[in-house]
């Protein structure tokens, strides 16, 4: 690893960003040309008859829109060790695994040096804008990051989650050092064999370096919340470790114990201080600033399926701002958060026009234009011609299509975004939802966002009882006639029967999609069912994914559990303690 790195100049990074976004259309054409020149020898592109052409018009004419399903055979040949140029000119040496929470099993996605470089470009760009608004000193970050094990594919390629591939790359550490974002934990904790032990040591390191912690981070808001919920359970044990200078027996991994022994020395004054801080809290409110008095913000992906965790995170954070991290996926990055002062619910992401070639499929809210009594389900399937990056319109919704340097060409990402504005000539996007995560039985179409809004509305009734929804998911039960929606809730305590009946009715009424309402009124969709699951059920789902090789930092609770996710459905159904049917219609 290179010890010396060019000193980080945030103003220079911002200038570079301003330069590439001034004429985003030109940069997009240059980027596509570069992608096609570098990968023109790839079998996939050769078979499509581009014949060396690199202009956008020829590219769109020759190359079809695809999903992962169409590219899967090519990716599996690469993973199985075929050395020929299949999707890229240069060989792919690493495979990323998606979280697997959408489809029930992880997807294989090519990963290469160019993707790593675009990751670092995103990190540097967003840090430059973030540090202008919230400057941090040369302290440390309490970073709840975990690297799951990399394994070898059949063909000998290194494979791991996208976050693991990033954390294990030497560029990551160099960049983190340059942007003053070093973790207060030793590498042995991040790369530890057991995430429960790693989490405990992350918390312990945070307390040891409490005065130096400048920010709190994890890839997703869920991981930050999970960490501090765990802290509630183990804080006294952590204080004992600090007081005596001896690590708890719950940490058994020799590599972690050896690394922690170098940091952990008896410190009764710190243990007393932490004990005093915790016992002075009211219901854990302001936990984070009390523990880390010099922290400036809390940072992680907080949009989309992470939004339901913000209320509890704000409770822990008190006045500390929540800053949403950048926008990307296992397939690659899209945009950076260059407006860090916006709250996560309003966060936008400016597309970096030089990290890939982007197209956008306009999505019309077709249902609004339809006669509710003459709805045709196929009307939802209408697809409009994709438009280029600079042709999108403010206020419109689109599905993103990605072409990148790692062998994805006109790849439908499955994300729905809304254009909120422009930074120079590049659009600023707001994440709306995953397009394929739909509750649908008849002519109803409810997205992940619709589900979130319904849960938020119904959970207000629990707030009156001083209770909260810890986590939730959903399922379409087609075994009944007619089929009906099932919502799974894990609740923080015991709720009365009458309150839960009201919650169930409120959930049913809160799905305001016209197709759903009209179908419920004529009983084409059955009464919504609320199933309350026992405490710890969603922890079992998390453990299930960790057992499949997912990293905690990449975990997202599956919001809609379909037939491909049968094991998760079994966990949910096997832990139901109460069930209620709506009487709202």
From TrEMBL:
The keyword ATP-binding does not apply. Keywords: Ligase. InterPro entries: GH3 (IPR004993), GH3_C (IPR055378), GH3_M (IPR055377). One of its GO terms (molecular function) is ligase activity. It comes from the Eukaryota. The keyword Nuclease does not apply. Residues 350-434 form the GH3 middle domain. Residues 449-561 form the GH3 C-terminal domain. PANTHER family: GH3 DOMAIN-CONTAINING PROTEIN, JASMONOYL--L-AMINO ACID SYNTHETASE JAR1. Belongs to the IAA-amido conjugating enzyme family. This is Jasmonic acid-amido synthetase JAR1-like. It comes from Juglans regia (English walnut).
